[in-house]
Fold each of these.
Amino acid sequence: MTIFNYGLIPMFLSLAATSVRAEPPAARKKVVLVIHGGAGVRASAKMTPEVKARYETALRDSLKAGYAILKSDRGTSLDAVEAAIKVLEDSPLFNAGKGAVFTHDGRNELDASIMEGKEKKAGAVAGVTRTKNPISAARAVMEKSPHVMMTGEGADRFAIASGVEEVSPVYFWTEQRWKALNDVLREEELLKKGRKSETAKPEHPYYGTVGAVALDRHGNLAAGTSTGGMTNKRHGRIGDSPIIGAGTYAENGACGVSCTGHGEIFIRNAVAYDVVALMKYGQERSVVEAAKKVLAKLPTEEGGVGGLIALDNQGNAAMEFDGDGMYRGTITEQGEIDVAIFR
Amino acid sequence: MTIFNYGLIPMFLSLAATSVRAEPPAARKKVVLVIHGGAGVRASAKMTPEVKARYETALRDSLKAGYAILKSDRGTSLDAVEAAIKVLEDSPLFNAGKGAVFTHDGRNELDASIMEGKEKKAGAVAGVTRTKNPISAARAVMEKSPHVMMTGEGADRFAIASGVEEVSPVYFWTEQRWKALNDVLREEELLKKGRKSETAKPEHPYYGTVGAVALDRHGNLAAGTSTGGMTNKRHGRIGDSPIIGAGTYAENGACGVSCTGHGEIFIRNAVAYDVVALMKYGQERSVVEAAKKVLAKLPTEEGGVGGLIALDNQGNAAMEFDGDGMYRGTITEQGEIDVAIFR
């Protein structure tokens, strides 16, 4: 009997260890803020340690900015989402704010949306060109207009009149994104002439959107998403990021969601709200399982369709994606940060 | 025993008669096309028989246009939805196409979306000003662009280049809508000066959107919605009509949906997709019950929040609204038309 017992204990310990390792470390503690900086990242082999470190630092800075608000007495999830996203918008690394990609016409047209889960209020802007932080413009629409969604010049005018910082459209010019547009345009020209591609395959044109979902001490969820859209998009194209229900959704009884990926597919499948609907109506009560199920239903594409982050009202975070990686991170109630890029 | 039997039969017959009377007549046969011309109609006492007859004729013409396609061998639900909506857009009676309301700046900015339920392809335009039939522009985005949603000048340019009929923006000027804008602007001025209202209460500013859902002989569903938005809307405001998931959705396994009402509330609640989600994930398998449940969850407003039409893949139609009326109608497989305005 003694021998038999000794035989079982190591087996039990080894099983327990496996099950702990299978869970992401942050999932064991209450997450209060989860962020993403887009899916569709380069293969890990192509990313230098220096570039990787820059991305990780930006993700940490974003998490810290949101956490500073959440741990204060009057900090709301809405404030934390806006603060975390502003850090990512101000970085040239992500396709949002400063680092936005160029449209076919060589412009930067930015989209963002924000939603709070208590009263399900929401705001969104699409195609703004003069608003430094589109996420703040989205929040102004939510809080200071009777509308949910505004586009173009009307959205810029409204945001700036509401006190959101104005910049010249040239603020959004970055060499890296300008080169990316020119690469794509050159490819198009070659294709038209029936010649073979000269440039290395450009980065996935859809990805790089940023987003955040936060849970505050009042139990309120909020979610937001911000993007520069897709390189070489035609004038006036709107992706999923500013669409409530597609790119962003928050409902206290279920979860908050922010998506990134091939926007058209996310709109057609109402992805953000679908995660919420699965938790509300379906048999799926786990936010991780709901997120996995919704992503698994999307069509497959070379390089992946995209990903999403979600956070439920118990502090369980999901960070799901179908490609090689997604810039992502969480911070717990205790301030423990976890950031990752690849699988 | 004989006496006992005789007593039961009349009771059974009377129950059966009651249950038949409780259902709308069209629901007993397979509906192939259901349309709406907006909720928020005037109280029945204020509508002359002549005006009522004009609305009913327009609804019948729309149903006939869609039906002519559905009964032909190659007729698709997508063609039927487009044809039915074009009739309503070309009528000055509804707030879509020709009869669109004016923005705060005295412009007509039109929105529309369309979706087919087999592959869940979708297209939408927002803020177009030079496209005669916005529903055809939405279809062009769906079929001829890699995008789902386009706005403003970019959307107009794309639609016209794709062969959709162009008109001068003055085509959309109608005396009735111009007067409505001026009434609202006068109200705003009076309110600013702290004086009492002079004009009679204007029509509900949100309503009048048109929409259609069709089921073809291949079992494919399609849905579409078109609107002029809300009177006095600020430049660049987008309502629910061009938002896939909010104003329009179609999924063969569940139903097609087109909404009308206070757009901001419909966006925040992802109303069109919510009906689909309830049927897919919830315990609600009836399209009428799903539509009722989704509408009942929306906040209440004076005059009503709005309404929606839905059609499932068995030909069961829902036409639900919370105000005094909704312009609406159905046509069955056999060509039987039923139109209604008030409760």
Amino acid sequence: MESNEKVSPNHEKVLGRLLSLSDGIFAFAITLLILNITLPDSTTRAAVPQALLALWPKYLAFLISFVVIGLYWIVHVRQFRVIRKYSSGLLWLNLLFLMFIVLIPFSTSVLSDFEVTASVVLYATNMACAGFTATGLWIYAVRGKLVDEKLGPARVRRGIITNLIAPVGFTLSIGLAFINTNLAAYSWLLIGVAHRAVDWILKLPKSDEDI
Amino acid sequence: MESNEKVSPNHEKVLGRLLSLSDGIFAFAITLLILNITLPDSTTRAAVPQALLALWPKYLAFLISFVVIGLYWIVHVRQFRVIRKYSSGLLWLNLLFLMFIVLIPFSTSVLSDFEVTASVVLYATNMACAGFTATGLWIYAVRGKLVDEKLGPARVRRGIITNLIAPVGFTLSIGLAFINTNLAAYSWLLIGVAHRAVDWILKLPKSDEDI
Amino acid sequence: MESNEKVSPNHEKVLGRLLSLSDGIFAFAITLLILNITLPDSTTRAAVPQALLALWPKYLAFLISFVVIGLYWIVHVRQFRVIRKYSSGLLWLNLLFLMFIVLIPFSTSVLSDFEVTASVVLYATNMACAGFTATGLWIYAVRGKLVDEKLGPARVRRGIITNLIAPVGFTLSIGLAFINTNLAAYSWLLIGVAHRAVDWILKLPKSDEDI
Amino acid sequence: MESNEKVSPNHEKVLGRLLSLSDGIFAFAITLLILNITLPDSTTRAAVPQALLALWPKYLAFLISFVVIGLYWIVHVRQFRVIRKYSSGLLWLNLLFLMFIVLIPFSTSVLSDFEVTASVVLYATNMACAGFTATGLWIYAVRGKLVDEKLGPARVRRGIITNLIAPVGFTLSIGLAFINTNLAAYSWLLIGVAHRAVDWILKLPKSDEDI
């Protein structure tokens, strides 16, 4: 943090606080997931092993949400690595994105408590909203010339495409949820695969600029 | 963070920690809001869709509080972008401000559980106290010459006025709460509008210094 | 954060992480206090005003704990403003100090639920342990030459004395708790007064070095 | 944080965010431990002293988990003090490590509620997984040349060995858990002793590079 002798653009300072708030929210949201996993109050000493195994849908939901929040955090890191300026709109778009991140522990708890279509739709909608907001933030930042001016169009396009994989995948899974909830959940695994594949296909020359 | 070879004013270092604590508390308070939203224990699998829809007053309270905490965070960012020095009084005033931020998840849970006058008064009082403390902190910092010395009087006045919009709006809504609780709640939406309008009217030349 | 080309002492980097962890823990511990304040499940709509007023012992406990955690945070800021090096012992002493900070939400909840001697003793012991550990950390850092080498003996002594006020006050209040719990609680207010008085008496020339 | 004029490797910036997320998660996970300690709802005023004493298995579990999370935090600090570059793999390995840290409050609550073999096995497995992941991350970073290039093979080897002490100790304790749960728990104390002993035996010249 450089000291700023004059009242001048201090984009770095404000972006530093935006990242500090964002990392804090990511950290708490991802840690709150663990509060969904508890043994029933009625568990007896003898029943602990069975009770622990019976929690497997909760472990699975925890794992999926941990991976998705991790993925969105990496998306956020990638974006803000090249964002050099802020605007009022950027701060609010980032808060909107963080609101969907904060909702994830709730969606996760509903999903792990009730394996019904509504839970799957809620969960996929939450995740899709987070992803579309992240994409919107990226387009907003590029259009508003808030990103590094040396950023080429290939990198911009690549950012849009990789950003869209998760929310498009989750949106498609909403349709599957009405057919079969398990099918929808399994389809989420494909999102990770698709993400990796697109990263591979669109890969920039293996320079350091690529996460 | 520059290393400091001598025991000398290290205002930057202490302000860095103040911001680190503040961003942590903002992040935690905003994330705690989600704990207010839970499905009743008695929810059956078939009733999940209805139960999710029945939570709408909680979603609304979550949304309002998220926006207000976001607004106060932006106010805090704006202020500390130009504060260059600290004092013991500044640290304590900031802690007082943060205390009102920490109370928001409680006020929000009361508001979303009970739509009565007392809840609305509690909520509006909490928000007003946060806003007035932020304004007090700003005046204290300006008077104590803790802000950047190049800061002009227009910017100072603008800071006071924009800081006062939210707390004055919430204070006025307390009166409305005794007439009709919904009226009070809807009046909060005007705060956002008023904030935007004042930002527009008082706008500084669109230089980078404006958030 | 300077990049470090060589495997060399990087005290600044490690101290930066120590402060990052500490500020995070302070922020969460202080925010967790709010979880102690909840309306009873049996509260009816009509009874909300009375129920909110009946929570006053909880508000008071919240306020006291917020102020004390704030005080210990300021003590921590003061100390680490002049600590320039770390050692394995410093990391562990700081973790021990943070452990007592983490315990405060628990002690506070016991105190606000049960106004009995045992609660007051628990609370005062928790606070005293935190304060004595902070004093120990300061002496350890000075003896181990981890502090800025330009730090004079007056400043060191002043650090020890101001650090001791809170824990000595809380220790004395344990005795009072066996006579009258309210007496003990009121005596805590004197700690703040004593702190301010000693700051005044021992005040260094009003240079920037003084918080 | 240096401003980055060109779209170029910005390893420092990304590693800064990785550390910010990690410290937030460590701070939150370590603070969540306190939520395991609560007095039973049925406690009467007269029974508070006994009830507080009856919580001793919870205090003990809190203490052990606090020390182990502290130990893993120090391991993390040591590693990232010399890691200079990131890769996609490093980000995900770190997230995997953090996932095991986030699980610790759950394992701790099971352990403190039920002193049975299954709880001890769960706890030791959780801790072992965290430790092995940390070791894997270190080997990955060294092989991928993400660490400081001046890092000698002695330091690398030392890192592997010290990293392995905790997870190997916890793995061995799983066997003991099937004989006697207390025996397993006491064996964890040896991990601390072994850690200190190995630090002593493998000690690098007392230069600043040693934590």
